[in-house]
Amino acid sequence: MSEIRNDWTKEEIIEIYNKPLLELVYEAATVHRKYHNPREVQISTLLSIKTGGCPEDCAYCPQAARYHTDIETNDLMTVSQVKAQALRAKATGSSRVCMGAAWRNVEDGPEFEQVLDMVRTINTLDMEVCCTLGMLTENQAQRLAEAGLYAYNHNLDSSEEYYKEIISSRGFDDRLQTLKNVRKTNVTVCSGGIIGMGESIEDRAGMLIALASLSPQPESVPINALVAVEGTPLEEQEVIPIWDMIRMVATTRIVLPSTTVRLSAGRTEMSKEGQAFCFLAGAGSIFAGDKLLTTPNPDVNEDMELFNILGLTPMKPYAKGAKPTPVNPDEMTPSDVEKAKWSRPGHRIEKNVEATKKANKKRKEAL
Ligand code: SF4
């Protein structure tokens, strides 16, 4: 029976991943039943509080300003807009709101103060609050914790080796540093990745090693299937076979037994039966709502129908951890004036450079 280990080897993980599928799912389902209630699935709503115009060059992302995609860009939402959306999410069964902003890193100032207000507001609604805002200093993590943040998401995306093939504007170590900064607070850690970007099984295993070697392991690991968006460098990537997704969910379940595995982007391409297999293999959470930041997601009624068929129920908020008590804003840790030094490797990634050139040409033609 699987136990929590931080010393997995690549060979061990690949061996698990490549097991005969039904044996793999059976083993993962057994681990899932030991550590989790298999009847409950946590529902999160992902809210894009600031969309597009991001300076980074993540090859999978339609929000990167340098690529030519059709997304609607938006400045930072107001606190009341966020509250209204959170209430709507709560009414349809979500226990968590995850707010995403297309930033490289958090900058101290009025926008960050506004996000802290959003965190305080959602906390009063008795919903778990999560943020995904880019790289974060220790001071910023502390201030988010004091505002009542429950979780911080910062994905490793892929293995350290393959990370260099998809992003040049920041390093893998920066990602790990942000996770370390979050870990110094009582905010829980959410970190996972994407499959279907052209990576190998070794890369998938490498990402799981990086996540499993964190001590303690992340409380939450989202597994995304790439949604190839026209205009991004990965626009021609084929949809990942459902069997790969099931294998990845099951392997994650076994390697990180007490973690909540999130079946995240790419569900619109998955059949109901495929998703059911993922729940059996240990997925314990989904994102609800018709959009996941900028890409399509199944309708919430369809999800509820599937839950009814499978006998699953939505998990209540704070089922796996206490509700954070926000600190009085006047007593919060002051903002740190020292700026963090995040890296910018800037190596050439051919497909990213080509997509940028194509976008610039389209912009010129449109003028
Ligand atoms: S994934 Fe995040 S950091 Fe990367 S381009 Fe998109 S919004 Fe920016």
From TrEMBL:
Assembly state and interactors? Answer: Homodimer.
The name on file for this protein is Biotin synthase
Q: Which residues bind [4Fe-4S] cluster?
A: 54, 58, 61
Keyword terms:
2Fe-2S, 4Fe-4S, Biotin biosynthesis, Iron, Iron-sulfur, Metal-binding, S-adenosyl-L-methionine, Transferase
Species lineage: Bacteria, Pseudomonadati, Bacteroidota, Cytophagia, Cytophagales
- Originating gene: bioB
Q: Which GO terms describe its biological process?
A: biotin biosynthetic process
Which HAMAP family does the annotation name?
Answer: BioB
- Pathway membership: Cofactor biosynthesis; biotin biosynthesis; biotin from 7,8-diaminononanoate: step 2/2
| PROSITE patterns linked | RADICAL_SAM (PS51918)
Species for this entry: Roseivirga seohaensis subsp. aquiponti
According to the UniProt record, where is the region Disordered? 322-367
